[in-house]
Amino acid sequence: MKKRFGWNSAYAVTILLWLVMCYLAWNFGYEVGKASVGGELERSDRTARRQGNNYNGSKLLPQGDKAAKLEERFPRPCQRVGDGTSQIVIFNTIPKCGGRTILSLTFALKQSLKVNIKSALNFSLEGSSNVKVLGYMNRVFSNLPSPGFIYTNTRLVALQTIPSRVPVRIGLIRDPMQRLVSAFYHARFGDRMSASAVDDETWQKQLQKNHKNISESFDDCVKSKSSECLGEETKGALVKQFCGYDTVCSTASPAALLRAKENVKNHYLLVGVLEEIDDFVRVLEKLVPSVFSGGFHTLENDKRVQSVIANSRTIGVESVSEQTKGIIKKHLSLDFEFYYFIQWRFMKQKEACGY
Ligand SMILES: *[C@@H]1O[C@H](CO)[C@@H](O)[C@H](O)[C@H]1NC(C)=O
Ligand SMILES: *[C@@H]1O[C@H](CO)[C@@H](O)[C@H](O)[C@H]1NC(C)=O
Ligand SMILES: *[C@@H]1O[C@H](CO)[C@@H](O)[C@H](O)[C@H]1NC(C)=O
């Protein structure tokens, strides 16, 4: 069934589904805000690189990272995909990683680009089988006219495709620790979108039901070794998302990490990092103009997009101690390795596009 969403219904569906997950949107919005207006630091880095000023990514990448070596085959040339009209972009969203900004951006661009947008969030499919998800995604994919944009939380499945309809997979991730911290505070305070969608009483009930203590900080949570911060289930969120639905992907393991990296290399046109969302959009403008042309200007200037950015920032986020950082870096080591791998690949692609 094809369904076209307006701004309001897209909002409602997105908001409600994420709320059900109790795991909403993203946070530390200040980084996003900074990135989207092209923070000074960002810009001078970019300029340095353009001028061939020996920028080698050492700021981004820990020295000697294994992931970087794996990636050296890459640098994809900065070329438009296909004929520019037949693409269907599949955007893989993960909670707290800027998905709502990208969705709102495509809605803002739809006016000029006539892209068909489909929100395909389906939380009942989490932990599902390849076959079930494949059935669902094949339906979504085959019913959407191109150029199209599919917004989905489902992991990678091999779609039935024909040459005139090309799936183009993209994704956006962020620093795994900041993602976890953001999710922690979001479960307690939400953001302005959830504040306007849910009244205080309901929110309080929700907190009680979920045993969330609003006086507890993320540092407290780590100190007390609570499963909310240090449980097995907090590990590997990024890795599992890009690994898929095979059994190897059900736990955070080196094998799942390897699979996730292979999947990115073989199936994803671009995976960006939220910290550099402005460059993510700029590169997309070059690679998939049929869906993202004018994206950077719109990201910076469109009032609705700016409002989504402002209203999806997590409320109440506190900074974490150095000790907590050390513990979480170890706890999320696989996610961090994946994140560094993505940073490196993204940097290469940005460079190929002149950013
Ligand atoms: C990158 O630059 C830094 C600082 O200029 C330098 O210490 C490092 O060795 C360089 N790394 C590579 C891989 O060239
Ligand atoms: C999620 O997928 C299942 C299985 O294909 C389907 O029955 C269900 O209607 C889907 N839910 C939504 C919200 O699309
Ligand atoms: C909530 O967290 C604070 C700070 O960690 C703690 O002092 C307090 O005892 C907690 N309250 C409950 C009901 O667990």
UniProtKB/TrEMBL annotation:
Its main location: Golgi. GO terms for molecular function: sulfotransferase activity. InterPro entries: Heparan_SO4_2-O-STrfase (IPR007734), P-loop_NTPase (IPR027417), Sulfotransferase (IPR005331). The chain crosses the membrane at residues 7-26. It is found in: Golgi apparatus membrane. Keywords: Glycoprotein, Golgi apparatus, Membrane, Signal-anchor, Transferase, Transmembrane, Transmembrane helix. The keyword Glycoprotein applies. It is a single-pass type II membrane protein. One of its GO terms (cellular component) is Golgi membrane. Belongs to the sulfotransferase 3 family. PANTHER family: HEPARAN SULFATE 2-O-SULFOTRANSFERASE, URONYL 2-SULFOTRANSFERASE. This is Heparan sulfate 2-O-sulfotransferase 1.
